[in-house]
Amino acid sequence: MRPVPAIAAVVGIATIAGCSAHQTDATGSVTVFAAASLTSTFTELGSRFEQDHPGTSVRFNFAGSADLESQLAQGAPADVFASADTDTMARAAEAGLLAGEPADFATNTLTIVTTPGNPTGIETFADLARPGSQVVVCAPQVPCGAATEKVERAAGVTLAPVSEESAVTDVLGKITSGQADAGLVYVTDAARAGSDVTAIPFPESGGAANRYPIAVLDGSANSGAARQFVDLVTGPQGREVLAAAGFASP
Question: Which of 26, 40, 97, 154 has its CA 20 to 30 A from that of 48?
Answer without folding.
Answer: 97
